[in-house]
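Researcher: Here's a chain I'd like modeled. Treat it as a single chain, no partners, no ligands.
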Amino acid sequence: MIDGCLNAGVPISAIGIQSHQHQGYWGKEKLEEVLERFAHFGLPIHFTENTLIIRIRPVILRTMY
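Model: Modeled as a single isolated chain. Structure tokens:
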């Protein structure tokens, strides 16, 4: 889509990325992959939205008598 817009003369000043990580944290490798995918355009890259779902396992606290 970005290529098509730029080729049609549509001015683009930055790229906004939404990263809704509902299935878990992407990790460094995936983050770098996403950044590299868009870096060749030579435009600023902004993470405009980010969702991280954190699941915490319940901890049972026992009191010693």
